[in-house]
């Protein structure tokens, strides 16, 4: 019997882990990402991430954009824009993001529904990634409360 792929809140745990590895390699001091000894493995990592990105949850794709800010040429500007546009389309009226819209078909073990309100995890992941990308953090809320 083949192993069942592990799914985490973020989606495919292998993809999530490889995305975090890409972020770590890109952020490592001393221009580690340019070391000749790691180039074959880095090439495999890039190929894996690109080959598997379309099947990932929106949360995984946001993390991939974050990784692309640390590893040039991981995503094209058009790929980054597509992911960001798809993500911004999920923005809540209050300006935040809800994890329930970023995790695809993931379900809790007890099958209770995910809260659909904006939350800190989803909003923080998106805002931080946009900041790393030097993009506007969010679209303006559709109806801002008066501060009068």
What report would you give on this structure?
With 148 residues, the chain is mostly helical. 46% of the residues lie in helices and 3% in strands. The protein has helices at 13-27, 39-52, 58-70, 77-88, 120-133, and strands at 7-8, 11-12. It has a two-stranded antiparallel sheet with strand order 1-2. A hairpin with a 2-residue loop joins β1 (7-8) and β2 (11-12). The protein is globular. The model is unreliable at 1-11 and 136-148 (pLDDT under 50).
Q: Which strands sit side by side, in order, in the main sheet?
A: 1-2
Encode the helix/strand succession as letters.
EEHHHHH
Q: Quick one: how many beta strands? A: 2
What form results from the Cα inertia axes?
Answer: globular
How much beta, percentage-wise?
A: under 5%
Number of helices: 5
List unreliable stretches of 5+ residues: 1-11, 136-148
- What Rg do the Cα atoms give? 17 Å
Helix content: 40-55%
Element layout with pairings:
Elements: E1 7-8, E2 11-12, H1 13-27, H2 39-52, H3 58-70, H4 77-88, H5 120-133
Antiparallel strand pairs: 1-2
Describe the structure using short key phrases.
148 residues, mainly alpha, two-stranded antiparallel ribbon, 2 strands, disordered N terminus, disordered C terminus
Summary?
The chain has 148 residues and is mainly alpha-helical. The protein is built from 5 helices and 2 strands, in the order ββααααα. Strand 1 and strand 2 form a beta hairpin.
């Amino acid at each position: 019997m083949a192993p069942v792929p592990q799914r985490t809140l973020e989606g495919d745990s292998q993809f999530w882990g490889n995305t975090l590895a890409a972020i770590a390699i890109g952020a490592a001091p001393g221009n580690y990402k340019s070391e000749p000894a790691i180039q074959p493995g880095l090439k495999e990592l890039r190929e894996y991430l690109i080959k598997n990105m379309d099947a990932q949850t929106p949360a995984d794709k946001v993390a991939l954009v974050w990784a692309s800010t640390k590893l040039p040429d991981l995503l094209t500007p058009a790929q980054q824009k597509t992911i960001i546009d798809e993500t911004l389309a999920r923005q809540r009226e209050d300006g935040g993001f809800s994890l329930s819209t970023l995790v695809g078909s993931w379900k809790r073990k007890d099958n209770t529904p995910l809260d659909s309100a904006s939350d800190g995890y989803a909003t923080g992941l998106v805002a931080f990634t946009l900041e790393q990308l030097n993009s506007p953090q969010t679209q303006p809320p559709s109806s801002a409360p008066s501060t009068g």
